[in-house]
Amino acid sequence: MTQAVSPIRSNPSRGAAGAAGPSVADRLATAFAAASVLVFDRLFVWQSRAADRRALQALDDHLLRDIGLSRADIEAEASKPFWHG
To answer: In terms of residue numbers, what domain contains 56?
Structure first.
């Protein structure tokens, strides 16, 4: 008796289990999602930084002395662009 040979051949690029990896579209979607998170995180940091600087400018000199800052310190900080830490 002869043994039947299956016409289906495994694809070595699909790994041992024969399951395909993520498609190009899936990998692009994942990369886009990761990049979007980074962009929105950076925007949030910039927005928070600008809001904190405005809040410091709104404090009166008595409160600034309480936290150990001078008006000159606040003006120097507030003059920085929002993207500088």
So the answer is: 45-85
Q: Is residue 18 part of a domain?
A: no
Lookup: tokens for 53? 């600087």
Q: Check the CA dihedral 54-57-60-61 and report its sign.
A: positive
| C-beta separation of 54 from 44 below 8 A | no
**Separation CA 77–CA 84 (nearest Å):** 10
- On whether residue 23 sits in a domain, the answer given is no
pLDDT tens, position by position, 3-60: 655 555 545 555 555 568 899 999 999 999 999 999 999 999 999 999 999 999 999 9
5 lies in some domain:
no
3 lies in some domain = no
